[in-house]
Amino acid sequence: MFLRRYWIPILLFVHDAILVCAVSFISLFIRFEGDVDPSYYKLLIPFLPFILGVRLVTFYLFRLYHRMWRYASIHEMLAIIGAVSASSAVITGTMIYTKSGIPRSIHLLSWLMLIAFVGFSRLGLRIYYYFRIRLMNPSVKILIIGAGDAGAMLAKEIRNRWSDTRQVVGFIDDDATKWGQRLMGIPVLGGREEMVHLAAAHKVAEIMIAVPSVSGAIVRTLVNKCRETGCAVKILPGLSDLIDGRVSLQSLRNVDLEDLLRRDPVKLDMDAISSYLKGKRVLVTGAGGSIGAEICRQIARFEPEALYLLGKGENSIYDIDQELRQHHPRIVVEPIIADVRDSERIRQIFSACAPQVIFHAAAHKHLPLMELQPVESVRNNIFGTKVVAEAADMSGVETFIMISTDKAVNPTSVMGATKRVAEMVVQCLSQRSKTRFAAVRFGNVLGSRGSVVPLFKKQIATGGPLTITDPEMKRYFMTIPEASQLVLQAGAIAKGGEVFVLDMGDPVRILDMAEDLIRLSGYEPYRDIEIAFTNVRRGEKLFEELLTAEEGTRATQHEKIFTANLRQVDSAQLSSQLTELAPILEGEQIKARIASLVPTYKPSE
């Protein structure tokens, strides 16, 4: 066991001892061009034990026998230079002091040769291990798309940490000025049009897409091109997901639908957001949901004094609580299990926590379920919002931001209509309150619980078919991080009473999404996985609207946030109508009452 552990250090020690002695004589030989007077050997030999001892002790102190030379880098080379230089200084000083008679140029020659010989011997070990591993375990050859900062960081990590199993053979980049150049010593081979040929020529097994700032349309083109090569494809997430800016091999993942729909990164006014969040006590309702949890993650970046996670489901609240405590240990994080409809409980929470900023994300959002149970939608979406908003007003909360939906525009569903009433509640309170009340309205969020993408993935896992209500159905989509970041930005812009509308980009056809997901899962639509069409469900639209034609919008200082031009809400009338609505428990009657509150609500047949 001892020999197995120390045989390489022992061999290096013996090797260095021989090298030190040899270099001393070689230096003399070079100094006198091969014609060395024997008297110089007589002067040198008595000093050899001293030279040998100083060299080896210094090498030991610089830990040249405690390093894994198969991974040698610039740090190991600097250690060699330091060890040789330190020992040379001691030897030269001693010989000058003792007037040894040995020419001083010998010391310079010994210094140079010893650095070269010791360095080469260690480099030889790395080369030996490199080729042995290559012969025994051929590495996976990789192409990186994107010869930019992200691609360079990725190549560097592969070289430093994964060189045993992976080898980057080249970069692909559409910038023709980079072709033929080298990045990290690796050639930029060409553009995407040559990818199929290059992948075959270099026997590439894996392609890594390292362009986190490009649009979804470009990602879609790249993925389609990669599919032609037959190689495995990995991708770095978008910049909105790479919050810390670090790029690593662990960041890579399989291409997902979010990558194909990726939009330009959100530009945030960090100072404005920080001014109303940093050092504040922030409460998030519905904190266990997809949007609520992501809002909590984004808020934590701005170092609030305390972050209160309010929700009704203990498991989801527990999960986000543990995550935030792990990643943000300096922030006070407090989970709260409560129902937003319980006015007494909410008042107690506000009294104990004294929140200064509230993000109200608690709501029933599943449209078909709410059509069957409209009373629950009214209780949670309308009266739950009313309870929390009134408690915020009474407690002197500074900012209250409610999460709304595009389904509140010309609603055909109970869920959409109740969210519009919730917006009206917030607007009314803003008219008389010192609290800045506002609502933020956006469309579907990719990957949120109960949304279409997780449903499609489950259907693909079971062999299909994927069910779509209509081949022409379209929806607006944005990612969870993008939506959450814009919600925080809207809070910085709000003056009170606004209903903000987020720029959702272009609507996406659900059929196209389904086909993309099937292909990303390694199947072909209609051949491996079928797509079945059902009728439009009650309360659904073929096309969601973010604004009515009558409303229109006004621009704000942020390019992706607009203010809806909504009519003024009559506070007294709304209060009277809500009082009449509260005791009604039967479905059709309650829908009629909602219609009186929201004239544009047209229940679907």
Description of the molecule:
With 605 residues, the chain is α/β, with parallel strands linked by helices. It has 21 helices and 22 strands. The strands form 5 sheets. A 9-stranded mixed beta sheet has the order 10-9-8-11-12-13-18-22-21, sandwiched between helices. Strands 3-4-2-1-5-6-7 form a 7-stranded mixed beta sheet, sandwiched between helices. Helix 16 links the parallel strand 12 (399-405) and strand 13 (436-442). Helix 3 runs antiparallel to helix 4 and helix 15 (374-395) packs parallel to helix 16. The longest helix is centred in the first third of the chain and has 32 residues, at 105-136. The termini are far apart.
Keywords:
single chain, 605 residues, 9-stranded mixed sheet, 7-stranded mixed sheet, 21 helices, 22 strands
Give the SSE layout.
Blueprint: H1 2-31, H2 38-44, H3 48-61, H4 74-98, H5 105-136, E1 140-145, H6 149-161, E2 166-172, E3 182-183, E4 186-190, H7 195-201, E5 206-209, H8 216-229, E6 232-235, E7 253-254, H9 257-260, H10 270-277, E8 281-285, H11 290-300, E9 306-311, H12 314-327, E10 332-337, H13 343-353, E11 357-360, H14 367-372, H15 374-395, E12 399-405, H16 414-432, E13 436-442, E14 444-446, H17 452-461, E15 466-468, E16 474-475, E17 477-479, H18 480-493, E18 498-502, E19 508-509, H19 510-520, E20 531-533, E21 553-555, E22 561-564, H20 571-581, H21 587-597
Parallel strand pairs: 1-2, 1-5, 2-4, 5-6, 8-9, 8-11, 9-10, 11-12, 12-13, 13-18, 14-17, 15-20
Antiparallel strand pairs: 3-4, 6-7, 16-19, 18-22, 21-22
